[in-house]
Amino acid sequence: MRKLVLAMSMSADGFVGGLNGEMDWLAGSLDADATAWLLDGLWQADAHLMGSEAFRDMAPRWAGSRAALAAPLNAIPKIVFTRGGVALPEDCGSWSEARVVKGGLRDEILRLKTQQGKRLLAHGGAGFAQSLVQHGLVDEYQLMVHPVVLGSGLPLFPIMEQPLQLKLLNARCFPSGAMAHVYRPA
Predict the structure, then answer these.
(1) Pick from 15, 47, 29, 33: nearest CA to 123
(2) What is the mean pLDDT of residues 6-27?
(3) Overall domain count for the chain
């Protein structure tokens, strides 16, 4: 059985994007060690899962990129979850071949988990990540906490009826001040 890993970058105050999804606050906090850690996590997956907004943002940015993180993002198949649909870009390499799943998030994730293979790696956006958390689908959280406070923005975790207890599996601090935290639900 495959596990679902939610891999997200977040500010020190728990936001995964600015109020409008801005990610410019990440600039400068990914040093070589942090990039290597992220690369290792990306290559351990055989499918990248994301919501339609994250897909629309990521496809044109990564398809032609020569950045270190581009290789696994471009090589590994993508599955896009959407409530209403998403137009696949025509000129974005493997991103143009993404599989689109309309609705049925919980059932489709549970089906994917029963298949043989490496882990499923979910990237976001914020709404998609919150849906995964609300449905109790996340088996592991890989959170890269960056040394910046946004004050407001898109939170990673939704409003919850009960606290979500986590068990720390690993933590690592990088020269830039970013910290990687790996948790599983307790």
Answers:
(1) 47
(2) 92
(3) 1
